[in-house]
Specification:
The complex is a heterodimer of chains A (about 475) and B (about 110). Chain A has about 475 residues and is mainly alpha-helical. Chain A is built from 19 helices and two strands. Chain B has a single domain, classed as Helix Hairpins, CATH 1.10.287.3510. Classes of the chains: A mainly alpha (about 475), B mainly alpha (about 110). Chains A and B meet through α6, α7 and α10 of A and α2 and α3 of B.
């Protein structure tokens, strides 16, 4: 039962992607929805089994390590899978309501890539094999960039080309590291390699190469240069999935390498260095968000900043710190998707996302402004919201190890987030209202309500954190401080 | 390890490092997108070379797994480069430029 569910998580969207690519109009819609709707149902037995047994280990087709590929589902993987399926359905639903309906021409190009992205993301989250992760990461990147250029706007094309070149560079650095790991350990399994390798010159070189590659792919400061243009110029639903999932899965892989493969290596100041990059990302990304003139670019810089909190997991690694960072990954995924979708609605409903044109836009698009505000509550970490729980726990983890500098960065990041979020909200509710620009068209009701639901979900994550946190703490990496 | 095998493996590893460096150098310095893409391809070849070196021979036998990895890697690289070429052609059609140098950071747009 669990095995079939796991296989379904990858192969259902993959089969649907193929079907959507070849079927005609109406049948295409059925295939597209069959590719995403059953995902939460499939996750029920998986999450139940992980909660019961702590971990699911599946050697694919019965081939065990070192030859075979092993799927490994622990609480971290299960939690991110749940986020992935929520995004796949909510943002997919939004896309269908915002010009990418599966039966339409534009939808016929969107849905195969969307479903491939979902399948590749799930395969990556499940895999415990370094080379398999490389392949799935490439699939994630290529399908994401394919989605980015669907509308064919010059700004999106340029951003996509830069993203693609840097992503390929990142994958090559990662693959070089994988080659070194295999040459040393004779296995590609992440856990087995972790047991076999000692932190000598070559394994450490491999870890450094893989880390640089993944930092480039997840746009961690100072390698974030490609992100704002890519996320800010993509079609609305694509911006949402890029920020909510695509950059997260390469950071997720980075956690896997450092907390599992290199769990018992003592690497001195390296975790502090990674945390320092995160701190710089929080401050720099927030300041950049503060001075942007376009709403979507501002939201993209906010992603640069919020990714920094995920990097704080390295210096603050403890049971609490790990659960906090994971909780941040989940709540930020929901809130940022909501924010990008609301921004896309404003762009469509007003005809521009430049702040000067958005003055008083709450008259035409009141629900989108509400969505932005509610998602903003979670992003800046006000109670009660998922973002508050995550940041509060990160502060606790920093407090427990006396990390005053980290506490200062977390608090400063919250204040800066308040500043960069209040600025567009003040403009959006200003009087007198600007007239809608030529080319403005009202988004549909479904496209208006779905982002609001996502924002409420990010808020709701602040009300019942205890069971989720207990689940996550049960899957803390080996050997961490309580 | 005999001096002969030590020598040959080291030579190949150094060759791979040199090829990777040449690619990286070109990627950073080239302005034309096609050159940058070729640079990425060259770097990919260096990684595959390293994988083939890792395949042995150990005790006279070749390890098959790195060979399989190189094959898979080539398939991935071909799809990635094919996609990049298509993107490049579209970019040149739409913007009339085949370089990312003069786009002002890419923040233009609606």
């Amino acid at each position: 039962m669990v095995l079939e569910a796991l296989a379904g998580l990858v192969f259902l969207p993959l089969l649907a992607a193929t079907a959507v690519a070849v079927l005609p109009g109406r049948a295409r819609a059925v295939a597209a929805w069959l590719g995403v709707w059953p995902l939460p149902v499939l996750l029920v037995p998986v999450v139940a089994e992980v909660a019961r047994a702590g971990e699911i280990v599946v050697p694919i087709a019965g081939f065990d390590r070192p030859l075979g590929i092993v799927w490994r589902v622990d609480p971290l993987a299960a939690a991110v899978l749940v986020l992935g399926s929520v995004i796949a359905i909510a943002v997919g639903g939004y896309a269908a309501a915002a010009g990418f309906g599966p039966a339409t021409r534009a939808g016929g190009r969107f849905w195969p890539l969307w479903l491939l992205l979902v399948a590749a993301t799930h395969a990556l989250l499940l895999s415990a094999d370094l080379f398999n992760v490389f392949v799935t990461l490439e699939l994630v990147t290529l399908s994401a960039i394919g989605l980015l250029v669907l509308e064919g706007k010059p700004a999106a094309l340029r951003a996509a080309m830069r993203y693609l070149l840097l992503a390929l560079l990142g994958s090559l650095a990662y693959l070089l590291g994988v080659a070194l790991v295999y040459a040393q350990a004779g296995t590609l399994d992440l856990h087995q390699a972790g047991e076999l390798l000692e932190p000598t010159l070559l394994p450490v070189t491999a870890l450094v190469l893989m880390t640089v590659g993944l930092l480039l792919k997840s746009a961690v400061f100072p390698l974030h240069g490609w992100l704002p243009a890519a996320h800010g110029n993509a079609p609305g639903p694509v911006s949402a999935v890029l920020s909510a999932m695509v950059v997260k899965v390469s950071l997720y892989t980075l956690w896997r390498l450092w907390f599992w493969l290199a769990a018992d290596w003592s690497l001195g100041w390296a975790p502090v260095l990674l945390g320092g990059l995160g701190a710089a990302a929080i401050l720099y990304g927030s300041l950049q968000a503060l001075i942007q003139e376009r709403l979507k670019i501002m939201v993209a810089y906010s992603t640069v900043a919020q990714l920094g909190y995920l990097m704080l997991a390295f210096p603050l690694l403890s049971t609490v710190g790990f659960a906090a960072a994971t909780y941040h990954l989940l709540s930020h995924g929901l809130a940022k998707a909501a924010m990008f979708l609301a921004a896309a609605n404003l762009l469509k409903g007003v005809g521009s996302d430049r702040l000067e044109h958005l003055s008083g836009a709450d008259r035409v698009r009141p629900v989108d402004v509400l969505t932005l505000a509610i998602a903003g509550v979670s992003i800046l970490g006000l109670p009660p919201s998922g973002g508050f729980v995550a940041k509060w726990l990160l502060l606790q983890a920093a407090w427990a190890q006396g990390g005053w500098a980290w506490i200062a960065v977390i608090l400063a990041g919250g204040l800066l987030a308040a500043a960069y979020l209040f600025r567009p909200l003040a403009v959006l509710t200003a009087r007198p209202a600007a007239d809608p620009r030529p080319g403005a068209t009202a988004p549909t009701v479904a496209a208006t309500v779905l982002p609001l639901l996502l924002a409420f979900a990010a808020l709701a994550a602040g009300f019942v954190p205890a069971p989720v946190l207990a689940f996550l703490e049960g899957g803390a990496p080996p050997g961490v401080r309580p | 390890m005999t001096p002969a095998t030590l020598g040959s493996a080291t030579v190949w590893v150094l060759a791979a490092a040199a090829v990777f460096g040449v690619g990286l150098y070109a990627l950073i310095l080239a302005r034309h997108l096609l050159r940058q893409l070729l640079a990425v391809k060259v770097m990919g070849s260096a990684v595959f070379l390293l994988l083939v070196v890792a395949a042995g021979p150990i005790d006279g036998a070749l390890d098959g797994i790195p060979m399989a990895l190189v094959l898979t890697g080539i398939v991935v690289a071909v799809s990635a480069v094919g996609f990049a070429l298509a993107l490049l052609v579209r970019l040149a059609d739409v913007t009339g430029s085949i370089s990312l140098e003069d786009d002002g950071g890419g923040d233009d747009g609606p």
